């Protein structure tokens, strides 16, 4: 166990870290913080949800010179939501040092952003497109930047972003430290990265598999036309606290969100065609429980840290094994348990094999549940609700009526009637999705020929827990007693009766 105390942090940063509830450093923090604080370039690869943000954030904050009120550090992240989230985490880490952090991303008012940048926040966290815009307009001062971070580095150096990133890095001072982090790092991208850095130290957490062991991984083999019913049945049985359903296209996401809503789920979609205001709003509702199922394209696959996401469903299997890793990594974070189910059409089975091989994980088969099993799942929720109410023990006002009922009817019938009323009848609204063609594996094999390198890693992401100001999701992996008290509103028992 490595405490942050032994990592040689300054008093103010240490105070922030402790206040954030971090008791001990995660393995990636333990290994990369000393090297980064030494001023060296680092490529850090560790599983999803293992604290990479603080692994680059802490050294970066430590390096900020408070006497210089100029922009000194820059973090580039692939999506707006991630830029926001990273900025928030850096703000927390730098709160006692008084470091000013500004998120900068598209879809927001340019004029205001320019005014904010003029004030020279010490750290800017930006998406590539908007950042390049500012670089070209010369509305960001880069001359004092000593640290640059690419979060989700492989994604940032992937086809879609690489030219922007190259253009941005070319404008940064040569005398700088560059830090790259991601849960995945395909070899060809690693090579590109190395060329952009100065003798980088690569830190790879040894893990047997690229995915976190605490995420139980399943698949259902299901025809395209049966996917939607299968999804709603699984949701009825699993009763996730919060679930993310990934779809392949924006249209798919819209159709899924509408279909789930029609069947009575509180679901909303998020993808790149929505206005920034709408995107933020959906995410906010998901975080506070107003939305229980977030349907998303890969825009939500990388980096997002939302506590309480117990389940991830790959309604459409992703093209790349890397995307698979990031998508399912939205659950099972910071030592919590998670559960992931991928929907595979018969023709995509070989694609699943490729994912298993590349990520080194075993994905277990799950039977498609019957409508009856789904209904039983709903009954179980009714029972939970009833038990919760029983244990809350403020039922005096109902005692007289209850006694009368028990005199007239037998008690089992009375309770059954109550349960029937509490059981949500799932609306069987027909939902027709526009059909998608299966993923082609040949294409994937061709592009991803050198993935065996991941197989010799050992798990590095376990064994730490925040125990202070915990985000309140306790793993109940074994299911515990049948009638768990669900404590507080929407928290429900974590069921794993997937075979029932
Ligand atoms: N030392 C720690 N102890 C407890 N919790 C921590 C610690 N470090 C980070 N966390 C928390 O763990 C969660 C995951 O961290 P973070 O988002 O940095 O993961 P990540 O490795 O970047 O994941 P991803 O690959 O998905 O981006 C966050 O809620 C973060 O606050
Ligand atoms: Mg991250």
Give an account of the 3D structure.
This is DEAD/DEAH box helicase. The protein is an alpha/beta fold. The chain has 2 domains: 4-209, 3-Layer(aba) Sandwich (Rossmann fold); 211-369 and 429-443, P-loop containing nucleotide triphosphate hydrolases (Rossmann fold, 3-Layer(aba) Sandwich). It has 18 helices and 14 strands. Helix 2 packs parallel to helix 3 (52-63), helix 13 (321-328) packs across helix 14 (349-359) and helix 15 crosses helix 17. The chain starts with 10 loop residues before the first helix and ends in a 53-residue tail after the last helix. Bound molecules: adenosine-5'-triphosphate and magnesium ion. Residues 22, 25-26, 29, 48-54, 183, 303, 305, 329, 333-334, 464, 466 line the site of adenosine-5'-triphosphate. Magnesium ion binds at residues 52-53, 151, 303.
Globular, elongated, flat, extended or rod-shaped: what is the shape?
globular
Runs in which pLDDT lies below 50 for 5 or more consecutive residues are: 443-500
How many domains comprise the coordinates?
2
CATH topology-level fold name of the largest domain? Rossmann fold
The CATH homologous superfamily name of the largest domain equals P-loop containing nucleotide triphosphate hydrolases
* Shape-level CATH architecture of the largest domain: 3-Layer(aba) Sandwich
* CATH class category label of the largest domain: Alpha Beta
The percent range for helix content is: 25-40%
Ions, cofactors, ligands: which are bound? adenosine-5'-triphosphate, magnesium ion
Give the beta-strand count: 14
**Which strand order do you get reading across the main beta sheet?**
3-4-2-5-6-1-7
Tally of helical runs = 18
Structural class: alpha/beta
Terminal CA distance: 40 Å
């Amino acid at each position: 166990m490595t405490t942050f105390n032994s990592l040689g942090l300054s008093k103010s940063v240490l105070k922030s870290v402790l206040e954030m509830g971090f008791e001990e450093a995660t393995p990636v923090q333990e290994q990369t913080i000393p090297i980064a604080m030494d001023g060296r370039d680092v490529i850090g690869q560790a599983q999803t949800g293992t604290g990479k943000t603080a692994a680059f954030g802490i050294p970066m904050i430590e390096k900020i010179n408070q006497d210089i009120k100029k922009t000194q550090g820059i973090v580039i992240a692939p999506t707006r939501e991630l830029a926001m989230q990273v900025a928030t985490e850096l703000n927390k880490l730098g709160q006692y040092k008084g470091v000013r952090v500004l998120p900068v991303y598209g879809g927001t008012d340019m004029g205001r952003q320019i005014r904010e940048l003029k004030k020279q926040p010490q750290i800017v966290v930006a998406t590539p497109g908007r950042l390049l815009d500012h670089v070209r307009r010369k509305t960001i001062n880069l001359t004092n930047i000593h640290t640059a971070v690419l979060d989700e580095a492989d994604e940032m150096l992937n086809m879609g972003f690489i030219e922007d990133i190259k253009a941005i890095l070319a404008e940064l001072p040569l005398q700088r430290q560059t830090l790259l982090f991601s849960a995945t790092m395909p070899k060809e991208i690693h090579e590109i990265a190395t060329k952009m850095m100065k003798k980088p130290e690569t830190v790879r957490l040894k893990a047997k598999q690229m995915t976190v062991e605490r995420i139980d991984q399943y698949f259902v083999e299901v025809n395209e036309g049966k996917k939607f019913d299968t999804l709603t049945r699984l949701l009825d049985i699993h009763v996730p606290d919060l679930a993310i359903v990934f779809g392949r296209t924006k249209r798919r996401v819209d159709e899924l969100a509408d279909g789930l809503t029609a069947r009575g789920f509180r679901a909303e979609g998020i993808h790149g065609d929505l206005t920034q205001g709408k995107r933020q709003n959906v995410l906010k509702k998901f975080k506070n429980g107003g939305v229980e199922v977030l349907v998303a394209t890969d825009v939500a696959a990388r980096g997002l840290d939302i506590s309480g996401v117990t389940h991830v469903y790959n309604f459409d299997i992703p093209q790349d094994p890397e995307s698979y890793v990031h998508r399912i990594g939205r659950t099972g974070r910071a030592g919590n348990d998670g559960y992931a189910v991928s929907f595979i059409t018969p023709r995509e089975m070989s694609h699943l094999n490729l994912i298993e091989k590349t990520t080194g994980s075993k994905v277990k088969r799950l039977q498609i549940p019957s409508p009856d099993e789904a209904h039983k799942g709903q009954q179980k929720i009714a029972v939970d609700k009833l038990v919760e109410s029983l244990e809350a023990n403020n039922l005096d006002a109902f005692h007289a009526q209850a006694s009368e009922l028990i005199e007239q009817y037998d008690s089992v019938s009375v309770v059954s009637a109550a349960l029937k009323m509490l059981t949500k009848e799932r609306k069987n609204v027909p939902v027709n999705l526009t059909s998608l063609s299966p993923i082609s594996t040949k294409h994937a094999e061709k592009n991803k020929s050198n993935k065996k390198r991941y197989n010799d890693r050992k798990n590095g992401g376990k064994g730490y827990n925040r125990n202070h100001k915990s985000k309140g999701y306790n793993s109940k992996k074994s299911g515990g007693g049948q009638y768990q008290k669900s404590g507080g509103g929407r928290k429900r028992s974590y069921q794993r009766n997937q075979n029932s």
